[in-house]
Amino acid sequence: AQSVSQHNHHVILSEAASLELGCNYSYGGTVNLFWYVQYPGQHLQLLLKYFSGDPLVKGIKGFEAEFIKSKFSFNLRKPSVQWSDTAEYFCAVESSASKIIFGSGTRLSIRP
Amino acid sequence: EPEVTQTPSHQVTQMGQEVILRCAPISNHLYFYWYRQILGQKVEFLVSFYNNEISEKSEIFDDQFSVERPDGSNFTLKIRSTKLEDSAMYFCASSQDRMSGNTIYFGEGSWLTVV
Fold first, then answer.
1. What is the rounded (10 degree) CA torsion for A59, A63, A64, A65?
2. Residue B19: which CATH number?
């Protein structure tokens, strides 16, 4: 069965620090991968997605993610975080044409 | 940007009562979904819906759950006899086409508390 693992449950950083959130998936076929963000009190928003092509995907708000097929990973990165990046981040994989499976999420706290 | 809207934003209900959560998907979208997130846990897929039929459902989506499009625009999730463990945030979502190559848009969620 497909699954998504996010090993960091809570990450605390200072402003301007670099960010990398880990995501590993298990799925035998062609994968479509996503990162969603949930700001406090708000709905899930798509940060970026990978379907094919360049494995380095750029998303909104300066985020990027790299798909490494050999490592079954899709880590999220940002060179310099801001206080406004405080949120919960979810990695997800498209399991079938009609559903996606989410990881357990990583809570990011940014110290001003 | 078009949005998926959900009502109510928060509902408290007694165990055993029926609950209907409502969703207005983005107008030209054809695929609809319900997910839920129990407090502190991951977002879980419940059901997907297309052309007035369930496309796929998870093992969570048992006989106490049902979905429909009562008026051709809104999309509802009904829980017939709520249990304490149904307390969760329920997210509606929609997409224009099937998942591959298309983005799924989520609503802000309906927080259900069963007491």
1. -100
2. 2.60.40.10
